[in-house]
Write a structure and sequence with these properties.
elongated; about 130 residues; about 0% strand; 5 helices; mainly alpha
Length: about 130
């Protein structure tokens, strides 16, 4: 099972435990779902990244491709790997955050940091071009 399948399995266990219990063969189901998610990320990443732009530097391209992959993964996690809202169960209040909520907070923070880094890189390039 790939990382997408593991993410989905943890998400379903955490957000929809009663629906998770209804899955006859979780290992096979989440392995298949993980492969589907991987294919979706690959194709969506290409669409989001678009074509190389004239004059694009190596670092700009790496930033654009990394950003596209992170956006694609975020979309796939929300649309494919996480149980639909109607299947999600209210979590009892916990004193400590769950590993899923910590992971989601980490993903959000990494996306914000990537965006800030891209903005800073663009700002520096604009200053160098002036």
């Amino acid at each position: 099972m790939n990382s997408y399948g593991k993410f989905a399995q943890n998400a379903w266990k955490t957000l929809s435990p009663s629906k998770y219990e209804l899955i006859v063969d979780p290992e096979a189901w989440f392995t298949s779902l993980g492969k589907e998610a991987e294919n979706s990320v690959d194709s969506l990443q290409v669409q989001i990244a678009g074509h190389d732009t004239p004059g694009e530097t190596y670092l700009q391209k790496v930033g654009r491709l990394n950003n596209a992959k992170m956006q694609a993964e975020e979309i796939v996690r929300a649309e494919i790997l996480t149980p639909p809202p109607e299947d999600q169960e209210d979590e009892p209040e916990e004193e400590e955050p769950s590993s899923m909520s910590l992971h989601l907070a980490f993903v959000k923070e990494m996306r914000e940091l990537q965006w800030e880094a891209d903005e800073e890189l663009n700002r520096l390039e604009m200053e160098d071009g002036l």
